[in-house]
Write a structure and sequence with these properties.
The structure holds two protein chains of two kinds. Chain A contains no helices and eleven strands. By secondary structure, chain A is mainly β. In chain A, strands 2, 4, 5, 6, 9, 10 and 11 form a seven-stranded mixed beta sheet that branches. Chain A has a four-stranded antiparallel beta sheet with strand order 1-3-8-7, with no helix packed on it. Chain B is an all-beta fold. Chain B has no helices and eleven strands. In chain B, strands 2, 4, 5, 9, 10 and 11 form a six-stranded mixed beta sheet that branches. In chain B, strands 1-3-8-7-6 form a five-stranded antiparallel beta sheet, with no helix packed on it. In chain B, a hairpin with a 7-residue loop joins strand 9 and strand 10. The chains are: A mainly beta, B mainly beta. Chains A and B meet through strand 4, strand 5 and strand 10 of A and strand 5, strand 9 and strand 10 of B.
């Protein structure tokens, strides 16, 4: 079974902090994705990556950046956290055009 | 623009059949996915349609009409554990595996 692991289930940070969310997958998938999920808005794509060191902006990249130095790891960075970035963050990975597999999510609160 | 519509909430009775509809208007189309998400958990893949017609997988079936921009997920012999959100997602026409998600349908199964 595919395993997508997000480093934290719950995280509390302060406004202005630099925040790192980590995601690791164990199935050699080339595609990795970061979403945020908010009530009434569904899953929205922040960034995705289709290869090491490659990244593409999704629908809502403002205020975020990503890093993919190794194939199995995809990091989401909040450069200067703000309260409107309080959300559930979900990481996913996929092999080619196969279905995406999701991690359990990180519920991030920015105070 | 990109738009995926699904009902916000539905209620059904244990043992019954329920149909969850999804309509989409996207700039490209390369397949439609259904995911199930229990509260506080990761979305899990249920079904995939890329050609018109019905795909059956146990108690769950999914239908697609590309000309109408329409899909439905059919759940038979409902069980209490089917209470969850059901997410419709369209893969756009590009070379990546990028998905556009609807806001999800929260299904409550009652005894």
């Amino acid at each position: 079974d595919v395993k997508v692991t997000q480093s934290s289930r719950y995280l509390v940070k302060r406004t202005g902090e630099k925040v790192f969310l980590e995601c690791v997958q164990d199935m050699d998938h080339e595609n990795m994705f970061w979403y945020r999920q908010d009530p009434g808005l569904g899953l929205r794509l922040i960034y995705f990556s289709y290869d090491v060191k490659m990244k593409e902006k999704g629908d809502i990249p403002e205020g975020y950046s990503v890093s993919r130095e190794k194939k199995e790891r995809f990091s989401l960075i909040l450069e200067s956290a703000s309260t409107n970035q309080t959300s559930m963050y979900l990481c996913a990975s996929s092999l080619g055009v196969q279905p995406q597999h999701f991690g359990d999510g990180t519920r991030l609160s920015i105070l | 623009g990109q738009n995926i519509d699904q009902p916000t909430e539905m209620t059904a009775t244990e043992g019954a059949i329920v149909q969850i509809n999804c309509t989409y208007q996207t700039s490209g189309f390369n397949g439609l996915f259904w995911y199930q998400q229990h509260a506080g958990e990761a979305p899990t893949f249920l079904s995939y349609n890329v050609l018109d017609g019905l795909e059956e997988k146990g108690r769950f079936s999914s239908f697609l009409s590309r000309s109408k921009g329409y899909s439905y997920l059919l759940l038979k012999e409902l069980q209490m554990k089917d209470s969850a959100s059901y997410l419709c997602a369209v893969r756009d026409g590009g070379a990546t595996n990028k998905l556009i998600f609807g806001t999800g349908t929260l299904l409550a199964v009652q005894p």
